[in-house]
Design brief:
The complex is a heterodimer of chains A (111) and B (113).
Chain A (H helix, E strand, L loop, with lengths): L4 E3 L2 E5 L4 E6 L6 E7 L5 E8 L4 E4 L2 E6 L4 E6 L8 E8 L6 E3 L3 E6 L1
Parallel strand pairs in A: 2-11
Antiparallel strand pairs in A: 1-3, 3-8, 4-5, 4-9, 6-7, 7-8, 9-10, 9-11
Chain B lengths: L2 E5 L2 E4 L5 E8 L5 E7 L5 E9 L2 E4 L6 E6 L2 E6 L8 E8 L8 E2 L3 E5 L1
Classes of the chains: A mainly beta (111), B mainly beta (113).
Chain lengths: 111, 113
Amino acid sequence: SQQGEEDPQALSIQEGENATMNCSYKTSINNLQWYRQNSGRGLVHLILIRSNEREKHSGRLRVTLDTSKKSSSLLITASRAADTASYFCATGATSYGKLTFGQGTILTVHP
Amino acid sequence: SQTIHQWPATLVQPVGSPLSLECTVEGTSNPNLYWYRQAAGRGLQLLFYSVGIGQISSEVPQNLSASRPQDRQFILSSKKLLLSDSGFYLCAWSPPYRNSPLHFGNGTRLTVT
């Protein structure tokens, strides 16, 4: 069963705008990760936030985690056409490296 | 640096035929290895994971099996493919400790006809 659920399922924006994607999960976690997937390719790890962290930055990416609400958000600032991809959240629980992925958000950035 | 190789990139197989997908990792030792399946470009389903040679855990009962004959080699197999086995298969590795990211191969697009 899927643990993480992303919202929205699809997002279409103009270049330069910010993109926000949300993820909700159901059970306790050790960490939450965000991945990006270009069409027909493997997933690329973007950022990992541990359960005792509330916010993390990496370049134009900002991730927040609210364990009381069991939710996370990924913000991409000043988006570019090259950011067009599917974005997935994944939660890690107690087992080594095992992640449960959500259904993903399809982001389209128009030039 | 670490790299992961997965092949073939695409595969078309008839129903009832066998399957063997191979994945190898370079530049690291004792990785955790994973096979995921992705349907229709959406969420990933964990099929198998391995924390060491010969140690395979199955997440979903199905028509598939996995083996790890060497430390950095992970193989996904089937004796007889079903139409429902079609999908995008992704191999991944992670360091052998918690809170570590997964590193994915480029995937194999399997179509069972």
